[in-house]
Amino acid sequence: MDFLYNINVQFYILSYLVGGIPFGLLLAKLFTGQDIREAGSGSIGATNVLRVLKETNPVLAKKLAIATVVLDALKGIVLLLVGKFLGLSIETLWAIAIFAVIGHCYSPYLKFEGGKGVATGAGVLFVMLPFETLIAFVTWFVVGKVLKISSLSSLLALCALILSSFILHPDLEGIKTHAPIFIIAFLIVYKHIPNIIRLFQGKESKVV
């Protein structure tokens, strides 16, 4: 068990545990008493918070959805900033980013169920690749405004981030590979498979 005294391992465990905190579920239960897993898409993310709660209280639903996005993003951001402050290597920082997203998608507090990883993924990628993440955000915002389909805007934003990362950083600093980005992207896309199926079927719900 000596490996548990290794600071890198400690951060990996911590990032998974913090990443797994289901803020959307907790906020909805705290302020409305509702379990958002039992309605809408069943997800614990901000989109489902908005979709489920707006039926009874649209103003509160919007506030809680925004709070969910911010808190889910901060789960990874805070850990990475602390890691940077402590001088952890770039390889370790990327691993922390991945574990935070895994924690959100497969929360240890929800029997390894969880969200789709978009907000947490955006948070960690903003720290690691700020310019690419800004490009992704603009893509997400424009597509979301025009098509009003959350899953499609998230997936297209992810594509924009990947493409821009190869243009702006052909060789990622310190690791010389885009593998961490692809791992995070795979997790997000995998969690979106039901949405992708509904998109092809023309049944994916819009956020209005």
Task: Briefly say what this structure is.
The protein is mainly α. The protein has helices spanning 7-19, 23-32, 46-53, 58-85, 90-105, 118-128, 130-147, 150-168, 179-191, 193-201.
| Gyration radius, in Å | 17 Å
Order of helices and strands: HHHHHHHHHH
Total of helices: 10
> How would a textbook summarize the main sheet?
none
Percentage of residues assigned to helices: 55-70%
Shape: globular
Beta-strand proportion: under 5%
What's the pLDDT, averaged over the residues? 92
Tally the structural domains.
1
Q: How far is the first residue's CA from the last residue's CA?
A: 51 Å
Structural class: mainly alpha
Assembly status: single chain
Low-confidence stretches: none
- What's the total count of β strands? 0
Explain this structure.
This protein has 208 residues and is an all-alpha fold. It contains ten helices and no strands. The protein has one domain (7-201). The mean pLDDT is 92. Probably interacts with PlsX.
Write the layout of secondary structure elements.
Elements: H1 7-19, H2 23-32, H3 46-53, H4 58-85, H5 90-105, H6 118-128, H7 130-147, H8 150-168, H9 179-191, H10 193-201
Organism: Sulfurospirillum halorespirans DSM 13726
Subunit structure: Probably interacts with PlsX.
Keywords: Acyltransferase, Cell membrane, Lipid biosynthesis, Lipid metabolism, Membrane, Phospholipid biosynthesis, Phospholipid metabolism, Transferase, Transmembrane, Transmembrane helix
Which tags fit this structure?
208 residues, globular, 70% helix, mainly alpha
